[in-house]
């Protein structure tokens, strides 16, 4: 710019420069060093002093930190949250919560995640709590089939062994195997079972009872309250299935005999609850006394999609889980041992069996909330612990897509269809049955079915053919299955079976460091082995104890053979030993059925 001084223009010297020049001139005349030279000589000295001081302070700090570290590491390990690793064992007091999402496969999570994002207006990166805790997958086959049932699946968890479909903690040779819950009880842990189905159903049964076939629910109920070779092993029981505890002379009973197990349980010290009011009296667990038996439904607790409208009648899975955790935590506060709790989202499986997508997404969300509640408990509780969650199998062969016609398929499914549903197909089918029991006019029946579809499932475009098929008493497909197919087709959700499938299922945990043996792909038996190792349990000794009780008899039972208390044998034509589904046994088996050629089977039965 005009008027700017050139970059290298001469500039006046500062006052300091003038003084310095004068000193240097005097030094030249007198032969003596100036003060500036003396300043240069003193700099190395002060630098050495500074470095020495810094080194001294650093040394002191290291010594102090070493002393503090030595002091901390010399403390006892009780209460430590340090993860254990290969070659080691967890030590100190600890808790284990095992969660089972019965029938929930990977696609169940996919469907529920997308449904929730749609229904709640969430972004696509908003995921379920479970999604953030996946650590591996589990292979689910049983000893008798590539496709397991819940009994064999839960036996793998409880005993750590494969067994045949239908076995309740019984090995293929029909001898009982000790469970992690039984071993935990014998080791001084408090124990609990929380489910949304009957407490006598396969999964809970496998942790506290032993029978040859899962259908022996009356006998399972007896063992769960302490009529058992080991005595009482369960301190807390929450779920449904009250009908198996009431004498057959009582309304609401489904027992085959007149035994009153509620009275038996009370004689054994159990406090008994049978309704929402009783559950609420626990005050979240702060007003509870163990042992505790809570049977909140005659059979199964309703699907969550229906229960939410009956919240004053039935507690939710999350509520039962939180209350059980509080009760068991308080009960072990002054104990050297913690607790073992099994929590099952039981009715995910039932929704899969019914091919009911709307019911299933609500069941998975309810399970996800219960899992979050357990994480919250572990975060706040002073005792270290871990939660491991997995499924026994997948149910329904679910697919998040469906080809509705022979032309090129559409690449989509519609969660909005499920968002319009307010009830399960089980609920509306029960309503239909009640209506048809008193109404015989076809026009009124058709009108009512259309009303059920609109109000219950949000379906407003049902065809006359669909309505008539539902009402057809000769239809080979049940009305409930038809309701489910109507909503599934419109949502373009696919199902391949009303039974189970052999797909691998996910494993989740609160910490991959605490559950490191389950990272990756594993047999379901390894989950049972992990639980025994984590709590340092002697399950083998528990098995020996049970097997030495071969002559034990339940009340009124007869001892006519070893292990008669396990129930009747399966029959000569049913093979449960020596089956090998890993190396082709399912291909070698063949059956001869009257009027038919031989066909292959992997079920272990002659039929």
TrEMBL record:
It is found in: Membrane. Mg(2+) binds at residues 102, 201, 203, 344. Signal peptide: none annotated. The active site is at residue 150. GO terms for cellular component: fungal-type vacuole membrane. The chain crosses the membrane at residues 49-69. PROSITE patterns: ALKALINE_PHOSPHATASE (PS00123). Belongs to the alkaline phosphatase family. This is Alkaline phosphatase. It comes from Aspergillus fumigatiaffinis. The lineage of its organism: Eukaryota, Fungi, Dikarya, Ascomycota, Pezizomycotina.
